Each structure stands twice: as structure tokens, then as C-alpha cells.
Amino acid sequence: MLRDARSRAKKLRRAASIGAFSGWTILIFAGITAVSAILGDVAAMVMGLALGTLGWNELRGVAMLKRFDPRGARVMGYNQIGLGLLIVIYAAWSLRSAADNPLLSAQGGSTGDAQADAMISEITGVVTYGLYGSMMVAGLIGPGLTAWYYFSREKIVRAFVANTPPWALEAMRTAG
Questions:
Q1: What are phi and psi of 69, to 5 degrees?
Q2: DSSP letter assigned to residue 40
Q3: In the chain, which residues have pLDDT < 70?
């Protein structure tokens, strides 16, 4: 019976592993971002705090999922939506900031050659819009699909708990 329960919990353990990887990765990026905040970058401080909160919350959801609490899947799903929103907001803000850069206007060039300035402006614009536009798309697709995956695990947790004897659940919770 316990062996059967462990086998049925495979999808839940996989979701917890994915969540743990995601949570720790977010926390690592929060730490890297915090280094910029030390240099006085207020935007980096806000991003670092937001990423730290998201990483902590992801790991909180993982712990709930490991205890077979269906709310853990929901916490992780909403957390991914928050991550996606943070990425999109950051990319939009960065794009707006970059648009104010003189390199994006042909008049702002400093080569002294109008054609070279126009070419530099065009290349810079393509790279800037391509980079931050791609970041926005990735921020929607990656976390969006991950959120959908986590939300789909809630039903699996509920079915698992309903169809597993309490003693087996307790043994699995204790074993980790």
C-alpha cells in the first residue's frame, strides 16, 4: 500500500522538485540583484526585494506541496503569475528608460557623421526593443505555463489525499 502511494505521488514530487529549483534560482537572482542595490541603485533594491519575496514564497509552496497540502500548488501557481508580472513590468520600465537614451535618436549621436549616427541609432533601437520585447514575451510564456502546471497539480494532490490511507500519508510526510 505504501509503495503504491509513493508511486502515485511521483507527479507531486516532480512538481515539488521543479518548484524548489525555481525558488532557489529566483533567490540566487535576488542576491545578484541585491549586489547592485548596494551601489545605490534603488530599482535594483526594489527588484531584489521582490525577487526575494517571490523566491521565499515559491519555497513555502513547495513545503506545503511536500506535506500534500493542495494549497501549495495554488501558492506556487500564483507566485509564478507574480514572477511573470515582475518580469514584464521590469522589461517595460527598462524599455521606457532605454527609449530616453540619446543613442536611440539620430540627433543624439556623437560620431559627427549623420549617416553613421542614424545607423547606430537604428541598430541600438532594434537591439533594445528586441531584447526587452523578448523579455516581455518570455515573462508571459515561461511563468504562465509554469503557473498552469502548478495549478493542475492541485487536483492531483486532492485526489492523492482522498485515495491514500491516513497512515500512508503520515508515513510519507514524516519521511519527507
A1: -95, 115
A2: T
A3: 101-112
